[in-house]
Write a structure and sequence with these properties.
With 127 residues, the protein is mainly beta. 15% of the residues lie in helices and 39% in strands. It is built from 1 helix and 7 strands. Strand 5 and strand 6 form a beta hairpin.
């Protein structure tokens, strides 16, 4: 009887320990935004779109210009940095991420762009 009990506990321990050491399957994408003079671009929106599902994730850059997307499904992504005051839009397509991969896009240097002012005039007539 004790041999069966020992085998039961040994089997239970083996199954439980396999759950403890499970591997992560998510990928990570990161990078740094800089202006043309290599200064960090803080608080800039960065959009990442999964090409297969069209799901979009958004992040903001830190004070050092860093952005990071964690726990991404393996697949192909497109990165978009929308036009901001003084900078042009930046787009990178076909970023392929594999299981448990950490991809560093390095320093992304944003190009200067013109600031566009928009004026909207609305008039209401009085009866």
């Amino acid at each position: 009887m004790s041999w069966k009990r020992f085998a039961f506990f040994l089997t239970t321990f083996a199954v439980a320990s396999g759950c403890i050491f499970a591997q992560t399957t998510g990928a990570t994408l990161q990078g740094t935004l800089n202006d043309p003079s290599d200064l960090a671009v803080p608080n800039q929106t960065v959009n990442l779109q999964n090409v297969a599902t069209n799901a979009v994730r958004t992040a903001k850059t830190t004070a050092e210009g860093l952005f990071r997307f964690n726990a991404l499904e393996p697949g192909v992504y497109g990165l978009t940095i929308p036009a901001a005051a003084g900078f042009q839009q930046y787009v990178v397509n076909q970023i392929s991420l594999n299981v448990s991969e950490t991809r560093d896009l390095g320093r992304i240097r944003l190009s200067l762009g013109s600031v566009t002012d928009s004026v909207s005039v609305t008039a209401a007539t009085t009866p």
